[in-house]
Structure formats: structure tokens, C-alpha cells
Design a protein that fits this description.
With 393 residues, the chain is of the alpha+beta class. The protein folds into 2 domains: 185 residues, no CATH class; 197 residues, no CATH class. Helix content is 54%, strand content 20%. It contains 16 helices and 12 strands. The chain has a 6-stranded mixed β-barrel with strand order 2-3-8-5-7-6. The protein has a two-stranded antiparallel sheet with strand order 11-12. Strand 2 and strand 3 form a beta hairpin. It is elongated.
């Protein structure tokens, strides 16, 4: 009976109820869309940057990230790759070796980070191969070949087909020297990568740097960032069994993680402010309605209704109102988010800035259970808890 009375009571003042529902619906719509867009942008940012080079996660020797000495190696990478690809969510893996060397073209020479990749597997983890603007990417048939970043090739004044001399230090301390032919020039849009990275076949690197089959990194690809995050406990356990460490996306890209964390904190403050404003506006309206209904409550008491029952009726009115208003907002928010999930959102004039970070020109919101219900749920919960004030009144 109390629930039936509460539902009828909120429609006794249709204008007030409609305004309250519209206010809550609009706030919920904003919360659903903004959260979906913000976290979707985070997912796009992480996925895009990780696909350029790092991969969604990496196995490395202990201490290699902070001090990348050539002597720190993974001695048996094949077994590690086979086990990693059996973990749910991991779609591919590839081997890499890194070295530092001097690239020379005649009298011009520049230091470079030499990245050795397996051409047959690298494209499954990194999209640098798709960023080759001139020439071609490395293939499984290549031997004495090299692909350079656009800035590095320009500094060395190299053209496709030119030979470049490589000098470095091998694993056994010997001089690593080689002459390679430039077959491709890539442009990632990230100056740091384009000015410093040179890629060569893993087998050629193994011979030149005397690696004897060892590598420095096993890089992983996954269905998505959340998928590899769910698999992280298994990946860390696998790394520990092999005497290695596993690095997740945040450890590989600490600058990106810090930027996301800072943006998330500021956004949460905005979300909390919006929820608080909406809750107090609704509660103020309901509290004033309670004060206006003194005669009604007196009649209810006269016909035998207990004060506790009246209080529960008022509380149920608030709950019904908040559920209805937020329900409408959730439906509208999901519809709006679903539309932009298909078409994306672009920001005119920001394309070059996004390209510098390896980001696409369009961002797409993504809906999850938590993103859809988190904000509206907070509004309903706050009204339910703070509704004790009109209840006690």
C-alpha cells in the first residue's frame, strides 16, 4: 500500500515531478556520455601508443628497463612465447633485441637505437610496419636490410637503396660492425621515435651482435588493454617462473599513465560536483514539498497511519522519483553514446597534435556496465541516504 501511495503522490504535482525528472535525466545523460567518452579516449590513447612499438605488455630481464645493458638477456625465449600465447586474452607475441650503435653514411654519423625484430611476427604486435612512407617494411627474406625513422634518415642524408655502416658492441664484448642497405623509411609522427629508431632483422642482429639466440624482450599483443589487464596475474606468474619481469602498459609508458591519472582525478572532481549539485537540488525540492504537506500528514495520522509509515512513504517517493529520472537519463545517455560509438568525435585543428602522440584523429566512446551505471547509481544512492532528512521531518 505504501508503495502505491508513494507512486501516486509523486504525480499529484506533475509540473514539479516533470521538472525533477528532466533535471535528473539530463544529469544522468551527461554522466553516462562523459564517462563513456573519457574512458573510451583513455582506451584509444593507450591502445594507439602501445601498438606503435611497445606492445600491450613485455617480458624483460630483471632491471633491463632501467639499465638496458646488452648482457641482460632472455636465454630461452621460444618456451616463454609458447606459454604466453596460451594465456586467455593474449593474441600474439614477438621477439626483439635492442642495441645502441653508430650509424654512418660517409662523413655523417649519428647514434641510434637499434631494434631487431622478427619480420614474420612483428606486424602482429606493432603497427610501425604500416607507417613506412617510402620503400617497404622488413620481410622474412631480408638479411642485410635496415629501416630507419624519417628524422634519422634525413640526418644521415640517406635515400632508399643507400648503404649505411653500423658500429656497436656485441654481447661478448667484440666490435659489432655491419653494412646494411636502407629498404624503408617510416614516419610514426612521434619525433623521438623518428629521429632515433633503426630496425633490422632479428637474425642479422643476432649474428652481428653475437647474441647466440638470446633476446632482450618478448612483446605481447592482446584483444584490448582491459583483456591484458585481466591476464596480468598469470603473466607476472609466468615471468617469475622464468626469472624475468613482466611490464604492463603503465610501466612501459609511465608518462601516459601519469597524464591519464591526473586527468582522471580532475574529471572525478567534476563528476562529484555534478552529482552533489543535482542531489541537493532534488532534496531541497522534496524537503519543501514535505513542509507543504503538513495538513495531508495530519489527515493520514487521524485515520490511523503511523508516523513511521508516513516517513517510509515519503522516502519511497524520493526513491521512485530518482529511479525514474535516472532511468530515463541512462536510456538517453546510452542512445547518445551509441551514436557516437559509430561515428566518433573529431576535434578540428587537433590532428597534428594527436599525430605527435600516435593518436587517431577521431575518438570513440565505449560503454561498459560501470560507465553506464556508475554516475546515475551514485545519484540514486545519495538521494536514498540523504533522504533520511525528509523522512525524519
Amino acid at each position: 500500500m505504501i508503495m502505491s501511495l508513494a507512486w501516486r503522490n509523486i504525480w499529484r504535482q506533475p509540473v514539479r515531478t516533470t521538472l525533477s525528472v528532466v533535471g535528473m535525466a539530463f544529469a544522468s545523460l551527461l554522466l553516462v556520455f562523459m564517462a563513456s567518452f573519457q574512458f573510451g579516449a583513455y582506451d584509444t590513447m593507450k591502445s594507439s601508443m602501445l601498438k606503435i612499438s611497445d606492445g600491450f605488455g613485455q617480458f624483460q630481464p630483471v632491471g633491463y628497463k632501467d639499465d638496458p645493458e646488452i648482457e641482460k638477456v632472455i636465454a630461452d625465449p621460444a618456451a616463454l612465447m609458447a606459454e604466453a600465447e596460451q594465456i586467455a586474452g593474449i593474441t600474439a607475441s614477438t621477439l626483439r633485441s635492442n642495441g645502441f650503435g653508430l650509424l654512418a653514411n660517409g662523413e655523417r654519423s649519428f647514434a641510434a637505437a637499434i631494434v631487431a625484430v622478427d619480420p614474420g611476427r612483428e606486424h602482429k604486435v606493432s603497427k610501425l610496419d604500416t607507417m613506412v612512407e617510402r620503400g617497404r617494411a622488413l620481410t622474412s627474406d631480408d638479411d642485410a636490410a635496415i629501416v630507419l625513422g624519417e628524422g634519422l634518415a634525413r640526418n644521415l642524408r640517406l635515400e632508399l637503396g643507400d648503404q649505411v655502416t653500423l658500429l656497436g658492441s656485441g654481447l661478448d664484448g667484440s666490435v659489432a660492425a655491419d653494412v646494411l642497405t636502407l629498404v624503408g623509411i617510416f614516419k610514426s609522427g612521434i619525433p623521438e621515435i623518428d629521429r632515433t629508431i633503426a630496425r633490422m632483422p632479428l637474425q642479422r642482429f643476432d649474428d652481428t651482435f653475437a647474441m647466440y639466440g638470446a633476446v632482450h624482450i618478448v612483446a605481447l599483443s592482446a584483444d584490448s588493454v582491459p583483456a591484458v589487464e585481466r591476464a596480468e596475474p598469470e603473466l607476472r606468474a609466468l615471468a617469475a617462473r622464468h626469472g624475468l619481469v613482466y611490464l604492463n602498459w603503465g610501466e612501459l609508458q609511465p608518462g601516459v599513465k601519469q597524464a591519464i591519472d591526473f586527468d582522471l582525478v580532475t574529471s572525478l572532481l567534476m563528476y562529484v560536483t555534478l552529482v552533489v549539485v543535482v542531489v541537493f537540488i532534488i532534496l531541497n525540492t522534496l524537503y519543501m514539498s514535505v513542509l507543504e504537506r503538513t495538513r495531508e500528514f495530519g489527515v493520514l495520522l487521524a485515520i490511523g497511519m503511523k508516523p513511521g509509515q508516513i516517513g517510509r512513504m515519503v522516502w519511497m517517493e524520493m526513491i521512485f522519483l530518482s529511479l525514474f529520472g535516472n532511468g530515463v537519463g541512462i536510456v538517453l545517455g546510452m542512445a547518445l553514446t551509441g551514436y557516437f560509438t559509430q561515428v566518433g568525435i573529431s576535434f578540428a585543428g587537433m590532428e597534428e597534435i594527436y599525430a605527435q602522440w600516435g593518436l587517431p584523429s577521431r575518438m570513440y566512446p565505449t560503454m561498459t556496465f560501470g560507465r553506464v551505471l556508475g554516475g546515475p547509481g551514485a545519484v540514486v544512492a545519495a538521494i536514498g541516504v540523504l533522504g533520511i532528512i525528509p523522512y525524519r521531518r
